[in-house]
Amino acid sequence: EELINGVTKTGAHFGVKLNNDGNFSINLEIIPELMGYVIGQKGMTIKKMQQEFDVTIKTPSKQSSDNTVRVIGKAEKKVLKAREEIIKICDAKRSLIPPTHFISIPINSPQIKNQLSSWNKEILGKYANLDENILQSPDRLHLTIVMLKLFTKEEVKKASSLLQEIKPSKQSQ
After folding, report:
1. Which of 96, 101, 124, 150 is 20 to 30 Å from 158 by CA-CA measure?
2. Which residues pair with 26 in a beta bridge?
C-alpha cells in the first residue's frame, strides 16, 4: 500500500474485498486536510458520488483520529469508479493546501547580516510607525530552495530518505 497525493493507492484490484454480505468494499486512507473536499459542502460531494455510483461512502467523524474512508457497493466496478472519483478529488485539491515543510540554505555571511541590520535600522528610522516585526531578522536570513507538502509520517520519511540519497558526501566536496 502506498500513499500518493494524500490517498492510499494499492496494487491488484486496489484492495477491493468481497464481504460476507455479498457487497464489495474498499478502504482509502485520506489525509485530514483533504477529507472536507471529499465530503463537500453540506455533504453534497459525497452524496453525489453515492448516487452516481450506487455505493455507500462512510467517513470518520471529525473527532476521530482514523482517516479511513470506506466505499461499499454491490458491484465491484462501481466501488472502483467511486474510488477513482475520490482520488481525482484529492489529486485536484491537494494543490490548495499550504506547504508543510521547506528546504532552505541559511545565509550566514557576516557582511550580508551587517548590511541587512543597517538597512533595517535605516527603514525603522525613516518610518517610525512601522512594526519592526515585519522586517527579516539578520539571524533568520535564508534562501528557500523548495517548499514541500508532506502530510503524513510516511511522506516525511520518504522525503528525508531522498534528501539523504542526494546529499553530497564529505569526500566529494
Report:
1. 96
2. 71
Task: State what percent of residues in the chain have pLDDT above 90.
Answer: 65
Residue 21: strand, helix, or coil: coil
Task: Give me the helices (H) in the chain, please.
Answer: 32-39, 44-53, 76-93, 110-126, 153-166
Whether residue 1 has pLDDT greater than 50? no
* Alpha carbon distance 38, 96 (integer Å): 14
DSSP helix/strand/coil, 11 = coil
Q: CA Rg, the chain, in Å?
A: 24
CA distances (Å), 90 to each of 25, 93, 98, 117, 124, in order? Answer: 19, 5, 14, 44, 45
How would residue 2 be classed by pLDDT, with cut points 50, 70 and 90?
very low
Torsion angles phi and psi, residue 149, rounded to 5:
-115, 95
Angle between helices 76-93 and 32-39 (to 10 degrees): 120
Q: What is the full DSSP assignment across 57-92?
A: EE---TT-S--EEEEEES-HHHHHHHHHHHHHHHHH
Kindly list the distances between the CA atom of residue 116 and the CA atoms of 49, 81, 130, in Å, as whole numbers in the listed order. 55, 56, 16
Of the candidates 85, 96, 103, 102, the one whose C-alpha atom is nearest the C-alpha of residue 33 is 96
